[in-house]
Specification:
single chain; about 350 residues; mainly beta; Methylamine Dehydrogenase, Chain H; 2 domains; 4-stranded antiparallel β-sheet; 31 strands
Length: about 350
């Protein structure tokens, strides 16, 4: 009997069993040398694994956050993290005492995420308070801020580090000049927002710059309802030379949910995750000139973050455990449901 041929031999393959943190994970990121995988967690901790060997081994926790850890960004051995209480922390992942500095109130309330400039030293954060703030990554000293007067959900830098892009709740991306704070232009993807009765849903959940710095990817979802949100994943690519949309990815149905995270692969495609209702989120690979993803899959019900290893040969995807209750305290006829956790699955990456 002939063995069955793999219908898609270039598709990603799961590499071993998932890592099993005991809490939910919001973000995963590899260190620049690829030796460490960090995970931002709901319990205010950052979990780490040594990924230099075939079987990753867990490293000591990094503490210091009170709320959910919402953002992670590496620069060398330094790891920058934000939380839902507005705190910004810099840690040295190679030190026994990792904390370098802390800004207790980087934002008034929820700090959404953190981004690193590709050149020089700026660090950008954004928050529910409507501000984008720039920090010196060596000292934690703020040196500029831009006010948007709306909830800012995502930030990223231009390739030359002279501009920062900030995406808000209403589907608007503003490009700020780092030196002056002036808005130089805006990009609108109004499909990413919906006012349903009195509830604003959606927004620019993620921003990503292509490897050549010429394309900006603006991602979230096209909401259909508020409350129990039904929405279709949406990524719109903008040509930065013209400021006009150049391509887009749109999901097939409104159960697929939001684009929760994105990463650029050097082979010229976007790796991204989605999380929807009920549990239809996936891990996807998409070439920007294509109408659909060339891979969508994963056994776990919803995915919340993705990180590409620096050598490009694998990715880490954080997801949601199956059969969870959502809050870990609900009892059903069959007994206690398991708490929500976030298994982290390693995948191979196709050479396309």
């Amino acid at each position: 009997m002939q063995p069955k041929k793999d219908p898609n031999p270039n598709a990603p393959k799961e590499l071993g069993k998932p890592l099993a943190p005991t809490t939910q994970v919001t973000r995963v990121r590899f260190s620049p040398d690829g030796k460490t995988l960090a995970a931002a967690c709901f319990d205010g901790k950052i979990r780490r694994w040594d990924t230099s060997a075939k079987d990753p081994t867990e490293l000591p926790l990094i503490s210091g956050h009170n709320g959910w850890v919402t953002g992670l960004a590496f620069a060398g051995n330094a790891l920058f993290s934000t939380d839902s209480w507005g705190r910004l922390i810099a840690s040295d992942v190679t030190a026994k005492e990792p904390k370098l500095w802390t800004v207790e109130a980087a934002h008034d309330g929820w700090a959404r995420t953190v981004a690193i400039a590709p050149v020089d030293s700026p660090l950008a954060t954004c928050g529910k308070d409507g501000f984008v703030r720039l920090w010196n990554r060596e000292t934690g000293k703020k040196f500029n801020e831009f006010e948007t007067k709306t909830d800012v959900l995502s930030v990223c830098f231009s390739a030359d580090g002279k501009s920062v892009f900030a995406g808000d709740l209403f589907g608007i991306v503003r490009e700020f000049e780092v030196s002056s704070g002036k808005v130089t232009r805006t990009f609108a993807v109004k499909e990413l927002h919906k006012l349903d009765r009195i509830q604003d849903v959606g927004g620019v959940k993620n921003l990503l710059l292509a490897g050549d710095g010429k394309t900006l990817f603006v991602a979230g979802a096209e909401p259909k309802t508020g409350g129990f949100v039904q929405c279709v994943p949406l990524i719109v690519a903008f040509d930065l030379a013209t400021g006009k949309p150049s391509s887009q990815y749109k999901g097939a149905n409104d159960n697929e949910g939001y684009v929760t995270d994105m990463a650029w692969h050097a082979n010229g495609f976007v790796a991204f995750t989605t999380s929807g209702q009920p549990g239809q989120g996936k891990f996807h690979l998409w070439k920007p000139d294509a109408a659909t993803a060339f891979f969508s899959g994963g056994k776990l019900p919803n995915c919340h973050s993705i990180a590409i290893h620096p050598d490009g040969d694998k990715v880490a995807v954080s997801a949601t455990n199956a059969n969870s209750s959502g809050n870990g305290r609900v009892k059903g006829a069959g007994g206690d449901y398991p708490e929500n956790t976030s298994p982290i699955q390693m995948w191979s990456v196709p050479k396309v």
